[in-house]
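Data card: per-record layout.
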Amino acid sequence: MITRFVEKWMNGEYKLDADIRLHGNGFIQLDLGNDSRLHIWSDDLPTAQRVNTAIHNHRFSFNSSVLLGTLINKEYRFLTGGAGAYKLYHPESREGQSTELVATGQLGDFKLRGDNVLQAGEEYRFRAGDFHETQWEGLTATYFHKTMIHHGFEPSVACKIDEEPDNDFDRYEGEGVELWYFVDQVMEKVAPLFGYC
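The structure for this 197-residue chain is written out next.
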């Protein structure tokens, strides 16, 4: 999967005017078409949302291949009942913007099920509905591809109970030119690993 992505990139098969944005959890999303994206994390990226909502799930399953750096995928189980340290929110689309997180009324805690440390060249799969959090070390990039999509499932985002999500953040307000700089950095490092100079 990685080799094919790099080959298509170097052959100019992806549109360079593709939709690029800074996700609220602090990484770049670049749409590549056909339910695929390039994701990039870096400590040097612009500031994203002010409140941590990194634990979340998806309505789709996906495969992710690490192109560069180190990715830590932490998997959690959500435990309902009791006072709970977290509240759950559903993301709802806002016209012409990104999403707004709306409280569901669900409270609970998270139990760590496992954390996978992945290096460049490694891949992992993740199931729809499961909760996870992504961390990274250094400049890190993945090729991300959605597989099965569950259209009736409502994804959730977790926020600590004593905080409110940063609904003022808009992932489309970032400067595209600034974000493309990181894309160029990543591909300059990835391409030689696969025989492109």
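Known properties of this structure: The longest strand covers residues 60-80. Strands lie at 20-22, 27-33, 36-41, 60-80, 86-93, 99-119, 123-126, 131-149, 157-160.

See the next section for split statistics.
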